[in-house]
């Protein structure tokens, strides 16, 4: 019989066990081994059945067992120690509190998804896992972060396979009362709400759930409340689900509602108000509009409020292609803003202009969320060195007249939260060398360039560790494969072969990620005979574990999954290659440590960062990857292998895949498998073990989320907080008025004359030229601008590369024609073809960069030719 109503019945814990409730509600248990082990000891069978979720565990363990534990002195001593440790963690000073200077009082971090733990399934892939690792690392470092997201009642889909290998999606309903969440409540005990106005007098209301991620509160907005109509209740139904308007409402709730939730949380708890707002991708971009509206309510006009908001905003882009950006029809956006909808105090045309694609090739009828994010943030970054360059090229149209390398988008390379992703066995081996506390600090703070202690670990210990992890993966794979085949309709009698799937002594390759086409799940199948030979080699076999989800609407991705599954179903090879459905955090935590090689073969440069290989590396797994994302930045032959790419403009996609697949097979056949199976004098694979050792000691410290968050604090959050403090109402008004005046007058700015002391087109290295430049500033004054000399090597088309800029000084003026004279030296510090030019930029103390205003004046072509600007 089916229940007509569902309730959550919570256990009543005996008084001595009350601290278990607080430990279960703080998600630090998901990365703190002692807390994890404590819950497991409550009831090992219930712990496994609960999916290693303390909240579910406490709801299912027998009252008799709780009564027994309440009398167990040994358990109570462990409980007290773990509870005291959490209290010290939550209240004590950490890295952030020891930093000099005035750091941000608080930072609000917005993301559409967060991957904290499998017990809170609110993520689809890398973006969410990165956001979760960001929060956890901020907690370990003591950074006063407030996370903001949505609570999806169905999360992301669960994946299974049909008998013929086609992906099936399932959307289990999540009950917030059964998750590690508490409702944010007003002082009178009623649930706190935020509300958005919708067209036609309707309203979208959401309550706020709180997940405690160590020291960091994560606010999650939930629209499934009785006050909403059916349509509004479904706004937070699924992650990345629904049509265009559904997505727009999700992003309005995340951005606008998220700011209101932060204000409510700070009011109710006394938490410091954020000085910096960080939007992780463009989905939360509307947060800037809400903050502008707040300032307009306090008397600022739109332009001044925009400057104030920009000063304290950081925008991170994860997208390497325009197709990956959310874009909405202008009319749809217009309908949801304005007099009878949300933010009626702001002219809807101003809203629309923020998202306009004003660059060549842009679509005037679309509203671009990333473009709005960049216009509302004074500081922006990509997520690897390569991706920073890709982003500057992709968005360069927003800064016309500037070379791509001057576009004000920097990069902070992603990292991963080592306490979450390092296997306990790996941690214990490190702790044996340097002690538990030092090992924990090394993994969380990440303030050293190398882990020299790894050099002292014996080869035998490293090799035994790697085999233990591989053996654990084999056991895990067999369990999951058996469950998958039962879901596909196989009977127990058909599945005896699974007992022989994988071998703990065979070279193991892992490949697991989302399945968009650019990640090329099936590149390994390009030459099936060659792959089969690798799998079945009599002396040097390989085995491959594959996992991944295609987006529910992506039939192309589903076909790739099916193609891989059908190959893995072949009785000839199914003991050597497996596809595991329902890839998620729980599977990943077993998969990364158990693999010897982590494979990544995207189309370069379409991988913004790609952090799965980082998690594998922290467990001593070597990377085999295309030079894309983070691997392009940090690859060394010590850490693994680089797959050569054929990314020339003249190479068609099919030929490119053929070339790169062949390169992959060559590496496996000729370099990787021989090294894994060759044995030195000690009987161990000495050269392989040395690569594992160097991966751990040299690459390990680089890939930490602690390093990443420290970079955000030092390079982005602190400058943003300083700019926010400097942007008081008077300064904001002055800057907005100055920008308006400069933009209006810029057509009158020109470079009219350039002369140099050079007598010929050749000069000696180390000599100095004298530059004299006459510029017309129109209605502007020298205080409004900076005149620069830009110099460097020139390519075959006379473009300056690796440019150096030097400001020139006013030397007189204005003359009778209103022109000002600027002078300065130009050092010839490089040999070969050398060139220079001059330009005029707006200059103001509150600008973060010379390109920020998007205005530049350069010599006309005629003037450039007359000046002889090239030296060879």
TrEMBL record:
Cofactors demanded by this protein: pyridoxal 5'-phosphate
Assigned EC number: 2.4.1.1
Keywords: Allosteric enzyme, Carbohydrate metabolism, Glycosyltransferase, Pyridoxal phosphate, Transferase
PROSITE patterns, A to Z: PHOSPHORYLASE
Catalytic reactions on record: [(1->4)-alpha-D-glucosyl](n) + phosphate = [(1->4)-alpha-D-glucosyl](n-1) + alpha-D-glucose 1-phosphate
Entries under SUPFAM superfamilies matching the protein: UDP-Glycosyltransferase/glycogen phosphorylase
Keyword field contains Translocase: no
InterPro entries given in the database record: Agluc_phsphrylas, Glyco_trans_35, Glycogen/Maltodextrin_Phosph, Glycogen_phosphorylase_DUF3417, Pyridoxal_P_attach_site
Top-level taxonomic group: Bacteria
Residue span(s) of domain DUF3417: 13-120
Summary of the function given for this chain in its UniProt record: Phosphorylase is an important allosteric enzyme in carbohydrate metabolism. Enzymes from different sources differ in their regulatory mechanisms and in their natural substrates. However, all known phosphorylases share catalytic and structural properties.
Family: Belongs to the glycogen phosphorylase family.
UniProt name for this protein: glycogen phosphorylase
Organism in which the protein naturally occurs: Streptomyces marokkonensis
